[in-house]
Amino acid sequence: MTTTTSTTSRTNGKAATERVHDPIHRVAYGFEPGDGHLWVHTWFEDGGHLPEHFHPSLEEYWEVVEGLARVKLDGTWRDLAPEDGPVRVAPNIRHELKNESGGPVYARSRVIPGGRLEEFLVEASRAAREGLYNARNMPTSFKGAMWLAKFAYRFRDETVMCSPPPAVQRIVLPVIVRLAR
Fold first, then answer.
1. C-alpha count within 13 angstroms, C-beta hemisphere, residue 174
2. CA spacing 20 to 30 A to 99: which of 24, 45, 107, 168?
3. Burial label, 68 (beta-carbon count in 10 A; 0-12, 13-18, 19+)
4. Alpha-carbon distance 43 to 105, whole Å?
5. Which residues pair with 106 in a beta bridge?
6. Any idea where the domains of the chain sit in the sequence?
């Protein structure tokens, strides 16, 4: 899959932005701003996976539109199908999603407030394409370590990955960011 597609997707009669591909997590994203929220459209390849993370200041409502996904909320896995409707992910609740269905999955999330999640996902996808980190969100080089530290520190108020552990991140990130300056 390429970096972005050249056309927009239609979702519920509205145009979503071009898709941004993340080859590490095997997903593509499209974004549709709303009034005080953001729709994040996510296309999971077979085996696609959004690693465990949480949002200190954002609330999400995830729903599967096509296919079958697995969602882990606060340590418990369950299947998520179109007939299940939206699942609320409150701020600070650890969650992850994956596609083990054998086919593609299209899901979307309404994020309240939209915050900077689009910027986070676009930049993380770009870094994935550049090979700056691996599937465990660990840097693959010194350049990747510097990028990852500054990136995680900049978005720590909205999105926190659970690997490496958040307690380690709170101690290490400020030191690395200071050294990187």
1. 4
2. 168
3. middle
4. 6
5. 43, 66
6. 9-180
User: CATH says 9-180 is which class?
Assistant: mainly beta
The burial of 42, by beta-carbon neighbours within 10 Å (0-12 exposed, 13-18 middle, 19 or more buried), is given as buried
The C-alpha atoms of residue 180 and residue 165 are separated, in whole angstroms, by: 21
Mean pLDDT, the chain, whole residue set:
91
Cα dist. 50→2, 124, 125, 181 in Å?
A: 19, 12, 12, 30
At 127, the pLDDT band (50, 70, 90 cuts) reads: very high
> Can you tell me the distance from the alpha carbon of 7 to that of 1, in angstroms, rounded to the nearest whole number?
14
Cis-peptide, bond into residue 164, ω within 30° of zero: yes
Residues 181, 173: Cα–Cα separation, whole Å: 12
CB 95 within 8 A of CB 76: no
Q: How far apart, in whole angstroms, are the C-alpha atoms of residue 146 and residue 139? A: 8
pLDDT greater at residue 104 or residue 135: 104
The encoded tokens of residue 37 equal 């929220």
